[in-house]
Amino acid sequence: MTQTTKQGLSRRSLIKGTASVAALGVLGAPRIARADEGPIKIGFPVPITGPFGAEAKDQVKSAELAVKQFNAAGGLNGRLAELLVRDDKLNPGEAATRTLELIEKDKAHFIVGALSSAVQLSVNEVTRARGVIYISISQSDTINEAKDFSRFTFHEALNPQMTAGAVARHAFKKGQKVAYLAADYAYGHEMLAAFKRTAAPIGVETVGEVLHPFGAPDYSAFMPRLMSMKADILCICNFGRDQANSIKQAVDFGLKGPSKIVVPVLLHNQRLASSPDVFEGVVGGANYYWGIEDHNASAKTFNDAFRAAYNGAIPTDYGTYGYTAVRSLLMAVKEAGGTDTDKVITALEGLKYDVAKGPQSYRKCDHQSVQSVFVIESKKKSEMKTDADLFKVLATEAGDPATLRSCEQLGHKPS
Amino acid sequence: MEMAASKPMTKIATAPAAAPRRERLGRWRVPLSIAVLCVLPWLLPSKALAVNVLIYGLYAMGYNLLFGYTGLLSFGHAALFGTGAYVTGIAIGQFGTNWFLGMLAGVIAAGLMAAAMGALSTRTRGIYFAMVTLALAQLVYYVALQASSWTGGENGLRGFTVSKVGIGPLSVDFLNPIVKYYVVLAFVALAIWTLSRILNSPFGGVVEAIRENETRAKACGYDVVRTRLLAFVLSGLFCGLAGTLSALHLAIVPLDSLGYMMSGQAVMMTMLGGVGTFFGPFIGALAFLVMEDVLSLWTAHWQLFLGAIFVALVLYMPKGIWGTGLVWFERWRGR
Predict the structure, then answer these.
(1) Which CATH number belongs to the domain containing residue A245 in this structure?
(2) DSSP conformation letters of A390-402
(3) Secondary structure of chain B: what % helix, strand, coil (to 5)?
(4) In the predicted model, is pLDDT for residue A98 greater than 50?
(5) Residue ranges of the Leucine-binding protein domain (chain A) (predicted)?
(6) In this complex, do B251 and A125 lie within 8 Å of one another by their Cβ atoms?
(7) Residues A40, A148: one domain?
(8) Sign of dihedral through CA atoms A63, A68, A69, A74?
């Protein structure tokens, strides 16, 4: 760019250049009108860079697998699907811009993605104003509520009420004392609220709650306070690196002996990043664990396809969201016979799908995917058969709308 | 105001021979800038990006009024941008005002915020000024984080999508990207013209005089503290306008729009384009956003390349892209 300035860019060539670029834009326009015949485009904004990059990359892999399978099976009468992956940088403003680009420029028919509460809500705001179907694959309770919901909004990921609820029902016993350590942002707050909602009827006593800042590397200031609470259960509600860091320090402070450590979502990648000794005995929820393939045929099929596509790698928990969301969407597109938004919404609402983890379906009122939740425990090093043999499944809570907050509680009008 | 009556001080650091030519060119700077911006959406990869360039360009230009022209390095301009954005969103979403009143409320609130921040900070200078502005901006950030029933807290403010923009019976579809671009451009063009008038006024001269030599400006009888405060407020109005436009554009206000990264971005874009040049900050914003957009589509390691490009630009174009370009242009014309 410096070279042209130095040698002098003639006014004439500048005008010519500008005009030709503008002409190209105009010539490109007629393509838009025939968009219905082109590939089925699925926009996929996820935070490839940033603290959740590992999870996001797994989501991309899984989503690409779903698209590949759809295309290999002939697509929609020969019409193939295409995944447009974009880096939202874990920033709501960036995600909104990227989503606008996907809809306006790339003419994406559907949007799937996002991996943070704030980011998914911003994507949802853009898509619902433009009448584009969006399937969120990040945990959130807020997106189910009437205020943020629209008929274009679908939520494939579990929500805090489901994961924390399942974990609490399994791990909390009447008369026990629970102390909470939660990250001081939406994720931590929602998980904490969901635990307390479930804990109250069980008859568990809350002995204290400590909030820590998002992304805190050092938890030593919080540990003595948690120790002094003398709880039977230490419930740690945070995500990503925070989970591994806080559990490690709780173990260093000797909290694991007297209290049992429980987390709402026991993260595959964080367990891998840490050691089996640190995580040993920690109990948490999960949307997916590859180990269920022994008794779950759809998991076996999914794992095998994933292994074949990615040199024997196994799918992770958050990665699987990318697969189930895109698969369900493409099934609905097939059912609807095209990309017409209204028809696909109807198809999604009526869809029963079992593609990786057992039966799933979208609840009518809030479009939450009702699905099973696995309560898992991190294995001892000596119990691990392979490096990937991380968890043991303690319980499987089948998908049941009764475990969700009711449509009325969420502010939806009874239909 | 006494300073308005007196003549501005002579401009410093311009080669005497080049001065008349540059002035001739300078007279056309507003129409030229706007003409370039009119074709911008056709030159960039996407319309949404082009709107962002307008918004961040205005933000950086507003910032440059304080940093480049007055010589005050603020690290708290996110508070002004964010206040504009939040107040617009809250006015439309919770009080149901129309888009224009929402914008007006946003700009006024940003002006008031700038007056408050300026009153507390313009007495300090150098690193102390930077620190005070940073601290005040963080204060605003935490207020927005805590007042979640108003601001949506961590999740950001939403629920105020403006789909139609109009005055009286005339209205246009604001969801259409091209229409949106030109509506935003109308406001940005007005702001660019206003900024140019401010810089060309005697006040603009005083501001530069203070930047070059504060003691001398004081000795000449200018009220340094009040001039700085006024510059801060004016800068805040431009940045607030950028904030309100961003709220309308994205239909959300993320909490990050008050964060220190956002303040840092203003510094970065201004430096990249050229500190103290009229159109430089706009070029800086353009370069920053386009590089980020294009590189991140091309590779997952975009940060590495972006960093390398920045280092190269700082090393070889210390006056920024526009500033260095101007120097080369002068040299070429003077040959």
Answers:
(1) 3.40.50.2300
(2) -EEEEEEE---GG
(3) 75, 5, 20
(4) yes
(5) 39-381
(6) yes
(7) yes
(8) positive
Together in a domain, A144 and A279: no
Among B43, B154, B251, the residue with its CB nearest the CB of A129 is: B251
> Which positions of chain B have pLDDT values less than 70?
1-25, 335
Interface of B with A in 117-156 (CB under 8 A): 153-156
Q: Is the pLDDT reported for residue A50 higher than 90? A: no
Asked if residue A167 and residue A140 are part of one domain, the reply reads: no
Contacts of A130 in chain B (CB under 8 A): 175
Query: Is the domain of A253 the same as that of A387?
Result: yes
* B23 at interface of A, judged by CB pairs closer than 8 A: no
**Residues whose CB falls within 8 Å of the CB of residue B198, separated by 6 or more in sequence, listed in order:** B65, B204, B234
pLDDT of residue B330: 87
A65 within domain boundaries:
yes
The pLDDT of residue B135 is 97
pTM for the model stands at: 0.88
- Tokens representing B264 are 């840092």
Query: Do residue A2 and residue B317 have CB atoms under 8 angstroms apart?
Result: yes
Rounded to the nearest integer, the mean pLDDT of chain A is: 90
Count of structural domains within chain A: 2
Q: What is d(CA A82, CA A96) in angstroms, rounded to the nearest whole number?
A: 21
What mean pLDDT comes out for the span A15-44? 60
User: Are B45 and A142 an interchain contact pair (Cβ–Cβ within 8 Å)?
Assistant: no
Report ipTM (2 d.p.): 0.89
Q: Which among B39, B138, B252 is the top mutation candidate for probing chain A, defined by the most A β-carbons within 10 Å of its own β-carbon? A: B252
Do residues B106 and B240 make contact, with C-beta atoms less than 8 angstroms apart? yes
Instruction: Quote the tokens at residue A116.
Output: 């943070």
Are A165 and A263 members of one domain? yes
Q: Does A166 lie in the same domain as A191?
A: yes
pLDDT in tens, A333-367: 999 999 999 999 999 999 999 999 999 999 999 99
What digits encode the pLDDT tens for the residues A289-313? 999 999 999 999 999 999 999 999 9
Q: How many Å apart are CA A218 and CA A201, to the nearest integer? A: 34
Q: Compute the distance between CA of residue A203 and CA of residue A196 in angstroms, rounded to an integer.
A: 10
A280/A302 same-domain check: no
Chain B interface includes A61 (CB < 8 A): no
